[in-house]
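I'm stuck. Protein, please.
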Amino acid sequence: MTGLLIEPQLITRDDLEAAARVLAPVAVRTPLLPADPVSELVGGPVWIKPEMLQRGGAFKFRGAYNFLTRMDPAVRARGVVAPSSGNHAQAVALAAKLYGVPATVVMPTTVTAAKRNGAERLGARVVLAGKTTADRMSRAEELVRDEGLTLVPPYDHPMIIAGQGTVGLEIAADLPSVEAVLVPVGGGGFSAGVSAAIKLSLPNARVIGVEPTGAPKLSRARAAGHPVKLEHTGGLADGLLAVQIGQLTFAHHQRYIDDVITVDDDALRGAMRLLLDRLKLVVEPSGAITVAALLERKFIPRGPTVAVLSGGNIEWDGLCELLGE
């Protein structure tokens, strides 16, 4: 029989709990912090999940380490390669370092100094390739063919999704009364994993995806009913500028995400400044997008609401430039 669509296999509660066990000895169980300054401004109770405090400076370590752990040791020893705008590169570099295996990361020619330097400090070989997700993936696939490396996908893989989803398990455990969780959307691995974990733990909680106006790949996909490749993306949130949502991640979004909203660059700057000034947290633009959505009233919290801050990989000069210092 031909012409039948195969339904993607979504991760399960068992997958999430297995990832949590893998990560328990090595990952930071980031706290859930009351965000009183944000709550005062938006008129509802807000907590933040600060994944910039994770090893490698972002949530990405969770998925990368889970993926490497599941690899055959002999294959893993030959080395891994990761296409990334920055945070996935650092996560794979760190996971590979912990396992004592070589890592190569393929980053855009426009990569920030903080993200490139971070990967190099962790021992990764950095290869630069173009400016788009497709450029990086193409070069990474060449390295797989030429050097026998194993590709560690940035988002569209069940082990990556399950690892990232442990953030959602922690939120559900720490705040069982949560009514809404806001999570950034890039290629979709993080938002897929967190939304699955929240819905499988607390079915009545809402999950809201937040993406930049310059890269509305999930908004377009939901409107079309399938992933849509954007002609171009742009904006400050460099970690969220994928041109297309993943096939597997989109299937999770369709099942578990209640709504998706977009935020512009000016709102990101305001959120970064508030987080620094009032909460003493350094957050990169991609990481601040959930708080930006709240400050812009794109989502009005009615009950306990969690804004996930996905990362903080920004250097001093870049921070000053963005905030106008």
